[in-house]
Every structure is written in structure tokens, then in C-alpha cells.
Amino acid sequence: MGVAQVSRPDGPVDASVRIPVLAPLRTVNDALLHLLRGFEPQDWHRPTVHPDRTVKDLVTHLLQGSLNRVSMLRDGFRVATGPISRIEDLTALIQRNNREFMTAMRWVSPRIVIDLLAIYDGEMVAAFEALDPDAPGLGVAWAGEAVSPNWFDVAREYTEKWHHQQQLRDATSRPPLYDPALLTPVLETFARGLPFAFRSRDAKDGTRVAVTVTGPVTLQWTLRRMGKTWSLWSGTPENAEASISLPADLAWRLWTKGVTPDEARASMTLSGDETMAAPLTKFVAIMA
């Protein structure tokens, strides 16, 4: 597998710059079925990076995501939860629902879980294809948005499917999904949350924090401070006030709580104002 160098003109990265994920999502879904059908019985019971989730628990969590999306988008079905004003309350609700579903599915065989994934992963993609990409959709809370354009919400779902499958691959010693066409959309989507991650980091106007991801893909962004807010730009300048470089394998694990901030710092390259690394290492692009 070669290294993909992603090049594009420097410019602001905002809601007008979509991240296409439908084709990669189909590939990731197919890869999941191939992976699961190759499991030995003992693979389903292996521990994962999540202390309270086995491989089977994590697979059923992936199924839950597809069932929820199809229920909402295809069938118009929603469960009334009442108003939720704090991200902590939303996270707690999501985690409670996740635990309930995984517990119930422990009584269901792996074969049935695979059969359901084969049906409803496809139904989910079909529902996504029917959406107006720029119409308002579910908010990506870890990016600080109460309402997001559909394309960003779909991209967020793609990162869920990709990173949980990667955790399954880690747990069962299978090869990673590091094809650049699959990994790049994950990291590009996560990067959209970096301005929100930096929201409490004060700096003078004009401050630039360059972020470079290396490895199977090479991606570069710059966080710019202007008018007391941070924005994301593509590319990196040579004279940024702070520069941070980290491997792609580390970046996705860091932003999904697979490694601790201290563990990440040990494998990052920093120059300039090293305190600018703190918001990046504390950023979490999942609801956990």
C-alpha cells in the first residue's frame, strides 16, 4: 500500500467543503461482512479496547447504529427523549442506549447479527443517498454543532463505522483498513471538530497552529485565530506559531479515546508554542 499525499489549494475549510463518504461507506460495510464471516467462534468473545465490550458487543453496536438510522430516515420513527441542553446529558443518553442494546443482543447469535448487518447497512446507505446533502440534519455535537448539514452528519456516521471496525480488527489481529481512500475521509471529518476543541484556548489574532498527519495518508491543516474564534484552513504555513505532527495511526486512536493524551504526546512532533498541543490531545470525536 503506497502513501497518499493529499494536495489541494490552501483555503478555509467550512461547511461548504463537503467530505464525500458514500462510496467509502459501501466499501467499509462490505469489508465488515467479509471480516465477520471469517471469524472463528473464539474471535467473538475477544476483548476490545473498550473495557466492557467484547468483539460481539462491538459488532452489535455497529448494527444498532444502522438500525437507528434506518428507523429515523426511512421510517420516520423517533423515540421522544425530551429537551437535552447539555452535551454531557446527550452523551449519557447515548451511552445508556448503547449498553441496553448490547446487553439484549447477547442472546442473539453471531450469524443472525451478520444477517441483519447485511440487510440494514445497505438500507442505511440507501437512506443517506436520498438526503439533500446541504439540508439541515442531526448536529455533530463533538464539533460544537446543534444542527449540521446532512453531508457532515453522514460523514460522522462513516467515522463511526470505520473506527469501530478498526477496533474489531485490532482485537482479532486482522489487517487495518488503512487504504487512503478509506482513511482520509475519517481524518478529514475528525479535523472539522478542531476549531471547537480549541474554543477555550485564548491567543492573539493571527495566531496559526499547523497540524500535519503522516503515515498511510499525509494531511495538513491550519487552525487560525481571528476575532476571538478559531477556524480551520487547508495546508500549513512554514512560519506558524505552533506546529504539531502526528502519525495517522495515532491521530484516529487519540480522537476516539484509544490512547491517552500523555501517550499521544510521546509520539508527536512539536515546535513553537508547545502548549497549543493540549486542545488537540484532549479532543474527542465520539460521544463518549
* C-alpha geometry: globular
Helix count, DSSP H or I runs of 4 or more residues: 10
The ordered H/E elements are EHHHHEEHHHEEEEHHEH
CATH fold label of the largest domain: Four Helix Bundle (Hemerythrin (Met), subunit A)
Instruction: Give the distance, in angstroms, between the N- and C-terminal Cα atoms.
Output: 32 Å
3D architecture notes:
The chain is of the alpha/beta class and 288 residues long. It has two domains: 18-191, dinb family like domain (Four Helix Bundle (Hemerythrin (Met), subunit A), Up-down Bundle); 194-282, SCP2 sterol-binding domain (Nonspecific Lipid-transfer Protein, Chain A). It contains ten helices and eight strands. The protein has helices spanning 22-37, 55-73, 87-105, 110-129, 150-171, 180-191, 194-197, 248-254, 261-265, 277-282, and strands at 4-5, 136-138, 147-149, 208-214, 217-226, 229-234, 242-247, 269-272. Strand 2 and strand 3 (147-149) form a beta hairpin. Helix 2 packs parallel to helix 4 and helix 5 (150-171) crosses helix 6. The chain starts with a strand and ends in a 6-residue tail after the last helix. Residues 1-9 have low confidence and may be disordered.
Write the layout of secondary structure elements.
Elements: E1 4-5, H1 22-37, H2 55-73, H3 87-105, H4 110-129, E2 136-138, E3 147-149, H5 150-171, H6 180-191, H7 194-197, E4 208-214, E5 217-226, E6 229-234, E7 242-247, H8 248-254, H9 261-265, E8 269-272, H10 277-282
Helix pairs in contact: 1-4, 1-5, 2-3, 2-4, 2-5, 5-6
